[in-house]
Queue: 2 jobs
Job 1
Amino acid sequence: MRKNRKKKAKKRFKFFKIMPKPERFEQAPTVEQDIRERDYELLKDYVNDIYEKSEAEEEVIESFKEHNETVLKYADNLAKKEEINPEEEEILKTATILHDVSKLGTEEGEEVPLVKHGWESAVMAEKKLEELGKSEEFIKGVKKAIERHMGPIPGFMEREAKKWEKETGEKIKFPRPEIITEKILYDADMLALIDPQGIEKIMNIRKNNEIFIKDDRETAAREGISQEEASLRSALKSGQEATASLFTDSAREKAKELLKESETQIRRKLEKEKKVSKVITEAERIAREEAEKIALEEAREEAEKIFEEEKKEVEIK
Ligand SMILES: [Fe+2]
């Protein structure tokens, strides 16, 4: 009898064990969630359409799309760590999708200066969100987050503002993040600058800009390093600048990890490129020598032919 009870209890236990825990049940999305998801996709398409309408090269457009996805990923992770509420999450995600919408120009194809893309993106976001019937308060939250996302400040963005002031006489004062949604968008954008793709992007910009090229050449000569190493060091410095300007602890922690990863990954890549270029140079040298040998041989044969022909002509005469 006792044995039987034990057996039954064991059976019941087994039954509960194979039953999924209540939290494992996935809740079906509500109508509101469905609408939110549909709107996110709509807004992503809107941003991509604006980019594609611009005159930027395909490569640039792709890198902007990629950047937006990366910032979205970081913003999502930070939102989880900072435990923000669903309303804040919706504002954050919407602002993140739209934060750089004007960076390649407006809907009418007008150019937008880098120092002003936060404000212009906010204006474009407002118009689009009104079309989608979003509330005034929601739109205000999204706009404020977009206007406050530009950085690093202090650092690069302020230097750009000084250049702008010199060129146009217009003084620019950047509004700074105040509440958690604004801080997370700023931090997520900075993390995208610090990660390996971000650092590489800075290096590519340096490689294609006369002033930066001169700068890196001078550093390389002064410190006895290669131009690429100088460019990497400068890009990492920008990464440190971005790290120092972060707002949330979760982002600071992630930034440290990313900076290390960026340095290791890019150093490894540069090393590999150096080896490849050495092999190519050697192959080119051998090919050049071979070509010279063949050319010399051919010239010698040609000379001999001429000599023989001349000899025959003299004999005939
Ligand atoms: Fe931006």
Note: The CA atoms of residues 12 and 96 lie 50 Å apart.
Job 2
Amino acid sequence: MTNNEADRACLPESPALPGHSGSLSWMDGESPINAFGRALQNRFGGRIQRVSIDAGFTCPNVDGAVAKGGCNFCDNRSFSPSRRVRLQQVKTQLLSGIQTVRERYKKVSGFIAYFQPATNTYAPVEQLREVFELALGLNDEIQDEIVGLAIGTRPDCVPESVLSLIEELASQSYVSVEYGMQTIHDASLVWMNRAHSHADMINAIDRSRGRGFEICAHVILGIPGESHAMMMETAIEIGVLGFDAIKLHNLYAVRGTPLGEEVLSGQTKMMDRDEYVRTVVDFLERIPPQVIVERISGDAPSDFLIEPKWCLEKSSLRLSIEAEFAKRGTRQGSQYQPPGLPPEKRPVPADKTPASIREQIDRRGRLPVLKMQDR
Ligand code: SF4
């Protein structure tokens, strides 16, 4: 959400926020949520844009380390060696992404290198270091424009070696790790073929907290079989586990995926728009007010998207969500109840990363075909 978009919301007097003493700076504005664009602006003093990078990683849910086939909604046919040899080099991607953003927006103060597709901590750790440091190191060439990293990954892919590396990078720069949590309900994770459990998510965040990087949860609403009450249980877990940020997505189906086939055959239905709007507001009312809301919906290119089509109208969807908040006179955190055990007091557990994943990450060497820079 950009600042302009966030500014469109109009709310009555802010209600008291249970479990949170004092006001947060985002509440001084008119937005009902702690929007990402504003949070970045406050942190860096100007407009920050993410530039997406495909570093050529694959996924343990695709290559057989934990499962094959991948998640039912994920078009992972592209996570193959042939894709990796065709990949634009990381440096080229980053520089051309920055140029594209600069052409679109006149005032951009900095960029976050966003390692987005596949599982971006699933490679030998020294190779991860090389690729992340390459992105941050480009500052020498482009005058400190890259303000940090965002790293998308799975909760079962962060052994201690990876967390130590990210902690080290976070001591020098902004780093956000985005975990694909999706839901707290294991039956739904099985339905999606995630090949990890919610216990894996708890293990990852309890080992990630307090290391100096931001921790973001990617959550999907509208999973078939999940009731409203189940989705609200996932919302409550955001505060229990102490996530710093959240990305909310509606479940959507794209061509070439198992979910796409189910939707085309009529076997599975997507959530309708009005229900999604109400569910997002219910969800955000239950998460802590300080959590940064990075997204409130997801979509795909229109030629790949099967259903729901309404998610393509992002601006109008956002306005509807803001209007629902205004109608209720509530905002993010209005119904938040702090957990009995504050997240920072939760014990740090032993690392439960599956051995099959750890073998890939903690081995010496590098993925054979990953191309990172001109050589
Ligand atoms: S874990 Fe992520 S990258 Fe892997 S198959 Fe699922 S959605 Fe795709």
Note: The beta strands are 48-53, 110-115, 146-153, 174-182, 214-221, 245-250, 253-254, 292-295, 305-307.
